Amino acid sequence: MRSWFGWNGGRNRRGPFYNSLPCLPIIKRYFFHIAYNGLNYHGWQRQPNALSVQEVIEGVLKKIVKTPTSVNGCGRTDAGVHASQYFFHADMAEMEEEELLFKLNRTLPPDITVFAIIPVHEKANARFDAVQRTYDYFIHLRKDPFLQTVSALYSDMNLDIMCMKTAVDLLPQYEDYYAFCKSPASFKHTICRVSAAHLWEDKIGERLRFQISANRFLTGMIRIIVGRLLEIGTGRMSLDAFEGHLRDKKTPRIITGAHPQGLYLSKVVYPYLELPQQTVFSGVFGDDRAGYWA
After folding, report:
1. Rounded Cα–Cα distance for residues 284 and 111 (Å)
2. Are residues 168 and 47 in the same domain?
């Protein structure tokens, strides 16, 4: 009598049919901890007619593991925007993480780095599981050839820094950022819970650093906020008008976002994963531990 398991009534359960089955690889989900300089890319997300960070990474993974691999990022960044900490997840055959890490960094261009490959549970999601994201925005007020691609130049500005800091202190007091979004109608809601916001100045008054943390961000939100802060600093917008946009949820007549090269996604936090940054933005910004930013 034949059996599904093989011959001899199933007593030989490892019959010729069983032995002919291919050995299927074990598929696991991995988080990749990376950083990239966005100067040469049209943002993170794959684009039909422009080079993206996602496209480059997927191309390198296909070359190394010999099979197409889709990666899912923790969020989008605009063209020219950087990430000093970024995560994506991918489902791949079980592997030796250190070997793949070595091959990736050997093959990827110099402006993309992988710091770690972390096995996670099968439902972990780099985008939807993130509970906090932090962005930094850097400004230099005097032309500097070593800062032009990693910081935004706004020269010859006589800024009222204290007034700008007062505006920054207002940000955690509000939740609806409808007025500071390029396309608010594309979202189900425009609620963003800002947990912290700071504005620092270097000791000689030539560089600024704005930092904001929230559970989510809207399209263009940070660059629009920085643009408004610069208007406050130059006296073209009052603090009352700035707070009015937050309070009344009315979009300004003209929305001008700050330059992209000053913006960095700098930290992403998950309920089950929080890693320190593995890189500084640039040595020319100074060392936080030395009290560079006041």
Report:
1. 17
2. no
In degrees rounded to 5, what are phi and psi of residue 274? -140, 110
78 catalytically annotated? yes
Query: From CA 176, how far away is CA 193, in angstroms rounded?
Result: 8
According to DSSP, residue 257 is labeled: P
Angle at 212 between CA 290 and CA 198, to 5 degrees: 50
Kindly state the helix (H) or strand (E) to which residue 231 belongs, with its residue range.
Answer: helix 221-234
Residues 34 and 83 reside in one and the same domain: yes
pLDDT tens for 137-171 read 999 999 999 898 899 999 988 999 999 999 999 99
Q: Which residues, including other chains, have CB under 8 Å from residue 241's CB and lie 6 or more apart?
A: none
Which residues have C-beta within 8 Å of that of residue 250, sequence separation ≥ 6? 179, 244
8 Å CB contact between 267 and 85? yes
C-alpha 65/C-alpha 104 separation (Å) is 10
Residue 27, pLDDT > 80, answer yes
Token pair 């794959």 is at which residue? Answer: 46
137 shares its domain with 260: yes
Q: Determine which one of 78, 111, 169, 240 is catalytic.
A: 78
Q: Give the pTM.
A: 0.87
3-state SS assignment for residue 270: strand
pLDDT band at 205; cut points 50, 70, 90: confident
- Measured CA to CA, the distance from residue 135 to residue 266 in angstroms comes to 5
Comparing 62-71, 72-81, 223-232, 245-254, the range with the smallest average pLDDT is 245-254
Same domain? For 52 and 179 the reply is no
* Last-in-domain residue among 60, 90, 120: 120
